[in-house]
Amino acid sequence: MIGRILLAASILTLPLSAMATWDVGGGLEDYQWIEYPVGFSGTPKETGMRSAVFVNWNQDGESGALFSWRAKLYGGTVDYDTFLLSNGAPVSTKTDYSGASSEAQALYRDDLGSYKLDYLGSLGLDTWRRSIRITSGEQIEDYSILFMRAGLRLARSGNGAGFHGELGVKYPVSTREDAHLDTMGYTSNPGLSPKGEASGYAELGYRINSMFDVRFYYDSWRFGRSDDVTVTDTTGAAWLIHQPKSHMDAKGVKLLVSF
Predict the structure, then answer these.
(1) Which residues pair with 94 in a beta bridge?
(2) Fold that domain 2-250 belongs to in CATH
(3) pLDDT in tens, 132-168
């Protein structure tokens, strides 16, 4: 439902300005996910490359209130170095990722001459599936993160050639994790809610001409330990389950084509 609302809101902005552009492109990102389980000396870590497809819609103007929309499809297989909870023995496997995000942005633009300074805020939804390969198949975790963003963007109107950039903070206002516990030997599947924490992002780009734009970016998530949920296994034994404190960092490059 939230995704439909965001999509509808982004579509409604389209007729508000005749001066608008689309950016479409792809890229690669160096991905890292680290977990910090309490009571264990190890830190499970995922590292590897993921690919992504980007679609942006931007209103353009010299100053005043403007709107934009961002979408991203991403996925890939990364290395997962972890350990057995029973004895701490190291284990290496793979994790498959697939995800999508959609974000509606509102901004106010100040005219600085050849450059424009944008003060932006946004509401977005990021969803992904994390499939950890295990001996018996897959351990699947589905995440759904409703987030807000606030930042500053140094832009050039009219797709003028030159450098541009953006930086700011993100905050997850709602976090939902479906760990599919009922497929892992438990009799129920209560949802988990990792604690949302603020994190940073940044982007530095160079527009080659009116058509091509190269951008380097950094993105992140920060989640605190979720509250425990109680589940029982098929023998009737009760267990406390939680998602440990987790950090995500991604550094990437993308090439966009404007039209």
Answers:
(1) 79
(2) Lipocalin (2.40.128)
(3) 999 889 999 999 999 999 999 999 877 789 999 999 9
